[in-house]
Amino acid sequence: MPDEVFTSTSSRPDAVPHEYRIPSPIEQRGYLCDGAIREWTGPQQNVLSPICEATDGTVRPTVIGSYPLLTEEHALDALDAACRAYDHGRGAWPTMSVAERIGHVGAFAARMKEQRDAVVKLLMWEIGKTLPDAEKEFDRTLDYIRDTIEALKDLDRVSSRLVLEQGVIGQIRRAPLGVALCMGPFNYPLNETFTTLIPALIMGNTVIVFHDFNFIQFFGDFVYHINHLHVVQVIKLEFVIKTLLDPLDPFQDHVRLFFTHVTTNT
């Protein structure tokens, strides 16, 4: 069975079934900012798989790719781009109709389904998930996107009704709040990231994604349907991110990010 290859922490390269091999390391030389994938020529961080290779009597982690080691300057560029896209609630995305936002997110979900095999394979190599677990995470995430779309449709229908409250007739509508920072853990990078990203985005917020998943082209495909609005920024840094909102001015449409460098051994 193909799954048996991944029940061990090490194997010979030729022992991995052909359909689950990564022919060559995926060198991520771009990062997503201001609605476009920008080329990166700076230092890279290798991504090591928990699946080790036994070669010539030695066991070593498999290098499956690398990603850009961006700087504080690049992170702040992403923040500025997200703030410009929101524009105090006057940007193209936050003022777009619910139906149009649903259309963009629904179109992405359809394209996301086409990438299932590639994403599942990366989940197995990068995290060490079994094939069934990786497939479940992908399918559960796709189902969540569809459920979120249906929930927003229901919410929009309810919000279109007039409400009588204490002698006052009016409508209650949800509005976007501003720039959202979306993060996901190492063990569920796809599902946990998208369960914060999709609700924040579909409600009209602009988002910054700090992801723990080495698949920039996947996020690049996300922006295929929305990139002219510049609402999604993706960063992957060697920094600890802290967010602070001024308690005296909680409704400002900005987030201040502070970065502290972290030294890692990976």
Could you please describe the fold and organization of this structure?
The protein has 266 residues and is α/β, with parallel strands linked by helices. The protein has six helices and 13 strands. The protein has helices at 72-86, 98-114, 116-127, 131-159, 189-202, 216-224, and strands at residues 10-11, 26-27, 30-33, 36-39, 44-55, 58-68, 163-165, 168-170, 179-183, 206-210, 232-235, 239-244, 256-261. A hairpin with a 2-residue loop joins strand 3 (30-33) and strand 4. Mean pLDDT is 76; it is low at 1-8 and 237-266.
| Unreliable parts | 1-8, 237-266
* Coarse morphology: elongated
Main beta-sheet annotation: 4 strands, mixed
Strand content: 25-35%
Portion in helices: 25-40%
Order of helices and strands: EEEEEEHHHHEEEHEHEEE
Q: Structural class, from secondary structure content?
A: alpha/beta
Gyration radius, to the nearest Å?
Answer: 21 Å
How far is it from the N-terminal to the C-terminal residue, by CA? 31 Å
Number of helices, where a helix is a run of at least 4 consecutive DSSP H or I residues: 6
Mean pLDDT: 76
Numbering strands along the chain, what is their spatial order in the largest sheet?
Answer: 1-5-6-2
Number of strands: 13
